[in-house]
Design brief:
Layout: H1 2-9, H2 12-24, H3 30-42, H4 49-61, H5 68-79
Helix pairs in contact: 2-3, 2-4, 4-5
Length: 102
């Protein structure tokens, strides 16, 4: 499918740029936002904090709820927030959003 091809060929930065463009144009296409967000999530190790911020901004502009994992990652990268409720912000175990007691 086109979505699979897009996922395989699109970089994290390209997905974030596309989300930003959709936001600037105020295009509220839930399928596109979902597919592009999935690319960012699948390639999170490549994501810059700016790419994540742009993706979150685009969701806000078109009034779509962003994936929780994007919010978690942004909060950890930019605010230094860590999980306080056992399994992380998004419920994952281990990984970037895992429990990090200080």
């Amino acid at each position: 499918t086109t979505s699979t091809k897009l996922t395989n060929e699109c970089t994290c930065q390209e997905a974030a740029n596309a989300l930003y463009a959709l936001g600037r144009l105020q295009i509220r296409d839930e399928e596109s936002f979902s597919s592009l967000s999935a690319i960012i999530l699948n390639r999170m190790q490549e994501a810059t904090s700016q790419a994540i911020a742009n993706a979150l901004w685009a969701h806000e502009i078109v009034d779509l709820q962003p994936p929780r994992e994007l919010l978690d990652c942004w909060a950890q990268e930019n605010l230094g927030l860590v999980a306080a409720f056992g399994e992380g912000f998004s419920g994952d175990k281990g990984g970037k959003g895992g429990n990090k007691n200080k």
